[in-house]
Design a protein that fits this description.
single chain; about 325 residues; mainly alpha; three-stranded antiparallel sheet; 13 helices; about 55% helix; about 5% strand; elongated
C-alpha cells in the first residue's frame, strides 16, 4: 500500500533501469523514480513546455492521479524542470506566436482597402508603388488622381466588373483621398469602357492621359514653388497668382486650353497637400488670399506699413502731377 505522500504507480511496462528518460546532463549516479503525483505533474509540465516526446507519449496512457514507473538522474530532473529555463522557453514561444500573428495581420492589411483619410502611395490596381514600363527598362511612376473624370471612370469600370476591392476604394473620393495609379494600369482597367464606346476614342483617351500628365507635372512645380519660395520668403499671395502659375506651366507643356475644373480645384489640392500649413481665406471682395503659417505678425505688420508708404507716395506723385497740369 502506498502512503499519503507516496504515489500509486500505474502498471505499464517498465523501462530499463539503466535509462534516464530525460537525460540532459553528465550525471552517472544511480537512477531514481517518481515519489508522488505532484512530482509527476511537475515533470509532465516541463515535458509539455519542452515538447519532450518520450514523457508525453507515456502521459497519454496514464489516468489522472496515477504515475508511471519511470527513472531519471536527479541532476537531469533539476535541469529539465528548472523554472528559469522553462520561463525562457515559454517567452520565446509566445514571441514566435505574436510574430506570426503580426505577419498575418500585415498580410491581410496589405490586401484590404485603406480606411484612412488618404490612401498610401501605391497603385490602387496592381498594389505596387513602382513597376517597369512595358518594353522599357525604366520604372513607371505613380500618378495621383486629381481629376474627378478619372474617379468617375474607375468607379464605372469597377461597377461593371463587380470588383468589390476597387469599389471599396472608390467609395471615397479618389481626388480627396489622394489615390494613385500607374497610367498603364489605369488604361488597362478602363479599356473595356473605351471598346464599348462609352467614353471616347483611343485618340481622345491618349489626349486625356496627356492632359492628366500635364496637370500632375504642373502641380508638382507649383508645390515646389510654394515650399521653396513662399515658405522661404513668407508673404501674402492671391489664389489668382497661383492659378496663373498652374496655367502657365500647363501651357508650356503644350496644353493650350486649360479646363475650368482644373483651376477650380486648386484650393482643394492645396489644402490636401499642405493641410494647415497654408492659411486660405477670402478678402472683402471674395478673392481668396493665402499665406504660410510661418509668416509672423511682425512680418505682416512690416508688409502692411510698406504698402501704406507706397500708396502714400503714389498719392503724392499723383497730386503733384495734377497741380502741374493746373498751372499749365
Amino acid at each position: 500500500m502506498a502512503t499519503g505522500e507516496q504515489a500509486s504507480f500505474y502498471p505499464i511496462p517498465k523501462r530499463p533501469r539503466g535509462e534516464c528518460i530525460i537525460h540532459c546532463s553528465d550525471d552517472t549516479d544511480k537512477l531514481v523514480s517518481l515519489q508522488s503525483v505532484d512530482s509527476w505533474r511537475t515533470l509532465l509540465r516541463a515535458a509539455q513546455i519542452r515538447n519532450h516526446a518520450p514523457v508525453l507519449k507515456l502521459a497519454k496512457d496514464i489516468p489522472e492521479g496515477q504515475t508511471p514507473a519511470i527513472y531519471y538522474h536527479r541532476k537531469c530532473r533539476c535541469i529539465f524542470t528548472m523554472k528559469k529555463i522553462l520561463d525562457g522557453l515559454l517567452a520565446k514561444e509566445k514571441k514566435s506566436c505574436v510574430s506570426a500573428e503580426e505577419k498575418e495581420s500585415k498580410r491581410v492589411a496589405r490586401h484590404a482597402p485603406s480606411t484612412s483619410r488618404t490612401y498610401d502611395a501605391e497603385c490602387i490596381f496592381c498594389q505596387k508603388n513602382s513597376k517597369y514600363s512595358k518594353r522599357q527598362n525604366t520604372r513607371e511612376v505613380l500618378v495621383q488622381c486629381r481629376e474627378l473624370r478619372a474617379d468617375a471612370k474607375i468607379r464605372s469600370a469597377a461597377t461593371k466588373k463587380m470588383d468589390s476591392r476597387i469599389l471599396a476604394i472608390v467609395s471615397t473620393d479618389l481626388v480627396a483621398a489622394e489615390g494613385h495609379y500607374h497610367r498603364s494600369c489605369y488604361r488597362l482597367y478602363t479599356k473595356e469602357e473605351v471598346s464599348k464606346g462609352e467614353v471616347a476614342s483611343n485618340e481622345d483617351d491618349d489626349a486625356a492621359a496627356q492632359y492628366e500628365a500635364a496637370v500632375n507635372k504642373a502641380y508638382d512645380e507649383l508645390f515646389l514653388f510654394i515650399r521653396m519660395e513662399l515658405f522661404g520668403n513668407p508673404q501674402v499671395m492671391t489664389m489668382t497668382d497661383l492659378s496663373s502659375r498652374l496655367v502657365a506651366s500647363m501651357n508650356s507643356q503644350g496644353i493650350a486650353q486649360v479646363k475650368e475644373s482644373t483651376k477650380t480645384h486648386i484650393r482643394r489640392n492645396l489644402e490636401s497637400e499642405f493641410a494647415g500649413a497654408l492659411q486660405i481665406f477670402p478678402d472683402e471682395k471674395g478673392e481668396f488670399l493665402l499665406y504660410p503659417d510661418n509668416l509672423s505678425m511682425r512680418e505682416l505688420a512690416k508688409e502692411n506699413q510698406s504698402l501704406k508708404r507706397e500708396l502714400q507716395t503714389l498719392k503724392s506723385v499723383g497730386a503733384q502731377y495734377l497741380d502741374g497740369e493746373d498751372q499749365l
